[in-house]
Amino acid sequence: xxxxxxxxxxxxxxxxxxxxxxxxxxxxxxxxxxxxxxxxxxxxxxxxxxxxxxxxxxxxxxxxxxxxxxxxxxxxxxxxxxxxxxxxxxxxxxxxxxxxxxxxxxxxxxxxxxxxxxxxxx
Length: 122
Fold this sequence. Notes:
Blueprint: H1 2-26, H2 28-36, H3 45-61, H4 65-83, H5 90-112
């Protein structure tokens, strides 16, 4: 049963990023404009999209889980600091804390790897 819960957990934490990567592709120009409004070069959207699509897939299938989870954890911390730092706005504070919580969830995967059904050899 623990193996099934492990897979469900990996799917649950990864789905948000996989879908957001796809949404960024579908709204590429809008996302570039939004990033530029924070003073970031729009070209950074390309590695963000790659990470948000490839990372979750690797976590879901259980291949190179620790590397993918570490990358997504750093991504969550960076996006929290860069995009959600207006703590006077309750929504931004909530988004900041959600990103930090997700980073913590990914750190569990960094520590434990994929214990359920996965492609990594144990």
